[in-house]
Each structure stands twice: as C-alpha cells, then as structure tokens.
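Hi! If you just cloned this repository, the fastest way to understand the data is to look at a raw example. We've pasted two of them here, unedited. The first protein comes first, obviously.
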Amino acid sequence: MKNIRIVILAKVPNAGFSKSRLIPLLGAEGAHALALRLLKHTVTEAVRARVGTVELCLTPDNAMLGSLKIPPTVRCSSQGSGDLGDRMARIGARVVSTGEAVILIGTDCPALDAGRLRQVAESLTLADTVLVPAVDGGYVALGLNRFDPLLFSDMAWSTDSVAFTTLCRVGQLGWTVHLLPMLHDIDRPDDLKWLPAQWTEFRPGIPA
C-alpha cells in the first residue's frame, strides 16, 4: 500500500475578505471567525484520520501560521502562483512523483471528517482516483494514485460542472474511479444549516 499525503489547500483568512458571501449575515468578523474555525477543524480532522502525512498548503503565504497553533506534525507550505488549477496540479505532481498517493481537500466542508477521510484513503487501495462530490457541483476531496495535468487544466472552477468534468477526464485517461457520497460545502447563507450543530454562533436563527 502506498503512503498517503493529505494536502489541505487553504486561503489565509483575512477579516473583511474571508467568506465574503456570508458577511451580510454574519458580519465581517463573524465570517472571518467561521473561516478560521473551518480551517482549524479541517486540520484537526486530517490529523485524526491517521492515514499519512498532513500538509497545510496556504495562499498567498504562511504569515499567520503562528496564530493558528498548527500541530507540529503538520507540514506547512505555500501554494505558489497561478490559478487554482495551476496550484492543484503543481501539488499533485509533486506528491505523486515521490511515490505517495495524494488526497487534495479544501476547508469548506466540515462533514469531511476523520472517518470520511479514512474512507477516501481506503478507496485509494481499489482505484486510481477517488472523488467526493459537493452538492454544488464541485468536489470536496480528490484522491489520486496517479497524476495527469488534464484533471486541472482549463477547468471552469467554482461552477457546477467541476465534478462532472473531472469524472469525464478521468474516463478519458482510462483510470479507475471510486465515488463516495456527496457532501455540502459552506459557502452561502443557505449552507449554514449544514454546519455542526454545536457551532451555534454561526447558525443564526437555525435550531441546534
């Protein structure tokens, strides 16, 4: 079985800019606090999964790492330049070239917990590619045993076609794929109901 690396792609949370679509409901500070909570939760769950190395890959830089109190076992890096596809491709190529499998995740899906990350890792023993789709048409996790830039180039990111297009391109490559159940990202006010029930400060008007 290959070693696995979970790479968390995260934006540096900045007040007034983080989770901007939630600012009208939560306010700038509330949206910033939620972005931080999601980032910390994602790192915690990735470590708890115990499937391999965890790497936190930040954009635009790692200047705020000290305030996050990242566990010492988590490796930190910068995403570098380019659009999301460029950055994901560079990370995927780097990890796969070392002989490791990679699980690429973001920080917007609190339901992608340690148990689900273990499912992704287990599925990578059976398929070249593992995809956890998002309800909005994107995906919350992409596991790869192999790399090809086709999966990331000329992609209409942040649209409802990302997961479907990715699956089509996996088919073009002739790779095997395993699909796991769809999960919810937290991007818009209507998504807040999918937050953990105990995160009551971010669920205005929503019963716990």
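Ok, and the second one:
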Amino acid sequence: MARPPRIVIFAKAPVAGLAKTRLIPALGAQGSARLASAMLKHAVEQALASAVGPVELCVTPAPHDPVWSGLAQQDSLNWSDQGHGDLGERMTRAAQRTLEAGEPVLLMGTDCPELTAGRIREAAASLLATDATLVPAFDGGYVLLGLNRFDASLFTGIAWSTATVAQETRRRVEQLGWSLQTLPTLHDIDEPADLQWLPDHLQPPI
C-alpha cells in the first residue's frame, strides 16, 4: 500500500510590508497583510479538509519566531523552517527530505483560494498513477506540484515569479522522462487585478 502524500504548504509570515507587497497599491500594507493572513488560514483549512495525508506548514521566518504566535498552532499541523536560499533551494530541501522519507509530496503555496480540498484530493489521486502532477496558475506559475520522485533540476535555475515557471517545470519533467499529469489552471492572487478572483469570504472590507 502506497503511503499517503505529505502536503507541504510554503508560507511567509503575514506581516505588513513583507506579505503580498504587490497588493499594497490596492489594499495598503495592513490590508495586504490581513489578506495574506486570511489566505494562509484558508490554505491550511483546505489542506486539512482534504484528508489526503499529513499537513506540514513550512514557514519563513522559522516556526519559533514570535510573528507566528498569533496563528493557532493546531495539533494536526507539522511545522518546519524553510531555511535559507531562494525559493528553489527551499523547495528542493522540502521535497527531498519528504520523498527520501518515503512519502509522496504535494508542494503548495497560500496564494490560490481556488485550490480547495477537492482539488487537492484530485492532485493526490493523480499521483497514484503518475510521477508528477502540476496545477498551473493563469500567471504562468503553478499553485501545486506533486511528486513521487525527486530531482533537483525541477527547482534549480528557475526564474521564479515569472510567466515561464510552469512551462519550464513541465519541460524539465519531460527531460527526466517522468510521467506528468497537468490539472486545470487556477488563479493566484498576486496583483491588484487578481482581486476579482477572491471568493466573497476573503474579500477585504471596504
């Protein structure tokens, strides 16, 4: 029986001036931080509700930083430190240690409210029959990457936060000769224009 996948949620502390900075022109620093906090909570809730496997919150700064004291450290969550380096280095470490421990991994962020429990379950199910699964974002990135195998090339030398991330990741999976399932594309909330895709319960107060 295959082990269930571990969901690893990459999260940045929802601190004013540091979180969702590209939304500051529309929401202000405090409003952007409040939205970041709400989206983080939503992502954790959806991951737990999917019930596909253990859920780990991989954070920066480290879990013991006082900035996290306001977020209920639920017993059902594992916490880990993203550590140093760019996003690729941080994701490399998380994917490698999870897969080397014998667990498939679902790597996701907190920027996509459309990544619901049902869609996480769909990604987990696709990993039963494929080496990798990808949920692209409309901005050219991706909102979830599921892996049954590890190779650092998926995270090295990627131009993060650009419109080519998903395309380049797909190309590298194909270069490895792995099977890949691409699931429906979803909306990230990064820029003021993206706010139209926010569900009502996450809409900032006017």
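That's it. A detail worth noticing about the second one: The mean pLDDT is 94.
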